[in-house]
Amino acid sequence: METPTEEAFHELQQLVSELTHRVNFLEAELAAFPHRHADDPTQDEMLAISAAVAAFLGHRASIKQLHVRRRGSWSRQGREGIQESHAVTHHAPRHPLGGL
Predict the structure, then answer these.
(1) Is 82:74 a contact under the CB 8 Å cutoff?
(2) Domain that holds residue 80
(3) pLDDT(54) > 60
(4) Contact 41, 49 (CB under 8 A)
């Protein structure tokens, strides 16, 4: 097996240096992107949502914004929204025995 020549050694050093610069550049770019939350929809889920909307509307649709709610189920959120939209009056509690 041959020992690397000085020229080959310098070539390897140059390649390592270039790769180090590329990795540093890519890490800096990655740090600039907002971090994805674990509950955020994946690309496949976004595609499924887009397909469902397109099937419902009867034509191709694109998703421009998606708001993810992390509290409770969608049905509970709907009930809360309806309940919050109505003025609720509170009555004094009734006596269990009819006011005795």
Answers:
(1) no
(2) 40-84
(3) yes
(4) yes
